[in-house]
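A favour, since you know our structure tokens better than I do. It will help me judge whether the discrete encoding reads sensibly. The space below this message is yours for that.
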Amino acid sequence: MKKTSLLQEEKHSTVFFLWLFYVVFFVYDILYYDLFPAFPWSNVGDVSTKWIFFSYIKYGAMIALIPVSIYLIKKDKTEFVKYIVFFGYFSTNLITDILYYKDSSEAYTSGNLVEILIILFSPIFVTKSFTYFVSIGLIIKYILVGLFIQDPVVVFPIIIMLVCSVIAFLLLHRILNYIKALKYSYEEQLEGIVKGVIATLELKDPYTRGHSERVAAYAMNMAEATRRYKPYELDHFYYACLLHDIGKVSIPDTILTKSGKLTDEEYDIIKTHPVVGAEAIRDVEGIADNIEVIYHHHERWDGKGYPDGLSGEDIPFLARITAVADAFDAMTSSRSYRPALHFEEAYKRILDGQGSQFDPQLIEIFKQIYPDWVQISKVYQKGMDMRGGMKRENP
């Protein structure tokens, strides 16, 4: 749902940008080169045949990009459209300007109002990369033209591009800061709700108190150690880990707190909690992006886990990480049916599960970060809030 919403926003922004770009691009040229010369106060003069020829080349190239843009939008590759359209404008204008003015006695008068429009409207895509691409590209265009035609008049449009770029980046900076503030507020509210739900679950089973937070801290530590993810890609993984056992709310207290061995029927009920938990968060924006963490955190590398009996790399990677974190904390925590194991014994059992219960590569990483996990557990035992230390800082 979140990805679909963002994709729709990107499409709307791109379509708006294309309409504005093409209307200004063509209207400006028509007014400046076709209508204005007809007025007596105009100094544009007659448009040469050579210029008309190059104009047709530019128009043809830009018109040819319209069906390409439509195709990419329909194929949900909208993020490439703005770059392709700008690069098409940049390259055709650069080539035609150099070819026309290089051996011409005319003063350099090229440029289009659309260039200012592109820079000033680039913040609507809320991405620094496109604003950099546009600003630097246009400045480079005028520098190259100036070098080829040896006309210092290009300094004036370069100054205009620089001023417009500064304005664009100020707007973009303000937009990004506003988004960060909203995101931070949303995450604070989300964390409060999640921890409230966890507290309710812990009332059912006091032996699991702190389990969810420790598992989330261990899992975040391992996910970061894999170096496969950028910080923003783990935005909601932390919350999914906190809620990995939320499905246990549907399990009777007599089973959760039973001190003896579970019967086959009772164990079958226990095995329903990943499915129930995944269903509970299916429509929660953000956390639902990591639903596989909740649904598959009891799968085993050898395929003997539940609920689907997945094996090997068929198990989602973040679920494999959560499985290691969950098992380690379960071993080192007191439960109704046994006391907590010593860290050294839990460490040994995790290593024994390499290639059978757990992903072999993750266990190699576990060996390296094991001292961190011991420290995490000790800090939690002291009752400290680990959100700021073990979860990445909010921007």
Summary: Residues 325 and 351 are 13 Å apart (CA to CA). Residues 205-390 form a domain with the Hypothetical protein af1432 fold (CATH 1.10.3210.10). The two ends are 24 Å apart (CA to CA).
